[in-house]
Design brief:
There is one protein chain. The chain has 366 residues and is mainly alpha-helical. The protein contains 13 helices and four strands. The chain is globular and about 65 Å long.
């Protein structure tokens, strides 16, 4: 038992350090890029044509490649070496590479049009560019929340409707009792990548669905799966996806406004003529990155609150405290979760409450 606890602590300590190192390096690199004159050199190098938008894409490509090369060793160590070291990964090296290639390709397909819209707006809308772009990001977020379960997720996993049997009967009974209508209940082959277990409520409108990993279906009892399912149903019942979109929208508009003001003041002191000068753009990225870090504890606090609400809902409709506790314990064991992280670490970095707090909250509710 002591060895298992030690592994959990060691695993999470390594992952925590890697996360902090990644955040610090990214912020430092963006700061150097923005304020050292490096961006001026890259902007000059990227000016290969007379087309401003092509030059912008070349500029972004150079910076993106630079960040990818620097971040690749940390990504490989954290997502491949560490996961294998602790017996959590099922990926071969080639499968890991293939997943990264797909992720990169998807980022390019989505990122290029969004970046071009951004550059068009910052060039053509004057001081109000942030308002138009924030509205655009809101629309894009809603769009992708709608299509992700049917277009994006299948690029990485195979989804199949849950087969008939005891588990499906339990879950459909929960749906009928709480009057929740979704497109379907799906399992997905998470085991191709990892031994961890997970579940989620995804989609908007007609794409609403609850997804359960095959590892969850394989390693958990029907009563424990019912707890997980009821938890996800709680997210739907409390409209957490919609609330997250609304909250994110407020944050996006506020962040873009504040960062646009700081950016305008900064570039004037640096001698740039326009906010859309290529070499001036990294300063804006720096302020946006910094605002994201500042907002992280707030968004994580709200996320933890939603998780407690979903837990409470699951207990309310199942009245099965024993299965809830065994589910939490089993998730912690399978995922090598730290059951009791340091409160400061949990406050700043955890989007879910610790297992210990979730169990204590459930017992108090019961």
């Amino acid at each position: 038992m002591m060895e298992k606890i030690s592994n959990e602590k060691l695993y999470n300590r390594i992952k925590l350090r890697l996360s902090i190192i990644d955040l610090v390096i990214d912020l430092l690199l963006i700061a150097v890029l923005a304020f050292s004159g490096v961006s001026v050199f890259i902007a000059h190098t990227a000016s290969v044509t007379g087309n401003i938008y092509v030059n912008f894409l070349v500029f972004m490509l150079i910076i993106g490649l630079g960040f990818s090369v620097i971040g690749l060793p940390f990504d490989f160590y954290g997502s491949f070496i560490v996961e294998h070291k602790f017996g959590l990964s099922n990926q071969t090296f080639l499968k890991w590479v293939w997943e990264r290639v797909k992720s990169s390709a998807l980022s390019i397909v989505i990122g290029v049009p969004v970046s071009l819209v951004f550059y068009f707006l910052i060039r053509s809308m004057g001081d109000k560019w942030w308002l138009y772009f924030a509205g655009f990001i809101f629309a894009v977020s809603v769009f992708f929340a709608r299509i992700a379960p049917v277009v994006i997720f299948p690029l990485f996993y195979k989804f199949t409707k849950l087969e008939d049997g005891e588990i499906k009967e339990k879950l459909e009974k929960i749906l009928s009792e709480v009057n929740i209508k979704i497109t379907g209940i799906f399992s997905f082959n998470m085991s191709k990548d990892t031994k961890k277990a997970n579940a989620g409520f995804t989609g908007l409108g007609r794409s609403k669905r609850i997804i359960l990993s095959d590892t969850l279906l394989e390693k958990f009892t029907p009563d424990e799966i019912a707890i997980v399912f009821a938890h996800e149903a709680g997210h739907y019942k409390h409209r957490h996806i919609v609330k997250n979109i609304m909250f994110s929208t407020v944050v996006i508009f506020a962040s873009f406004y504040i960062c646009s003001v700081l950016h305008s003041i900064t570039i004037k002191s640096m001698g740039f003529q326009n906010v859309y000068d290529l070499a001036a753009l990294p300063a804006l990225v720096f302020y946006l990155t910094l605002s994201g870090l500042i907002m992280m504890p707030v968004t994580n606090f709200i996320s933890r609150k939603y998780e407690f609400q979903a837990d409470k809902y699951a207990l309310k409709i199942t009245s099965d405290l024993d299965s809830f506790i065994s589910t939490m314990e089993k998730l912690a064991e399978i995922n090598l979760a730290d059951k009791e992280p340091h409160p400061v670490v949990e406050f700043f970095l955890y989007s879910h409450p610790s297992i210990k707090r979730r169990i204590e909250s459930a017992r108090n509710q019961k």
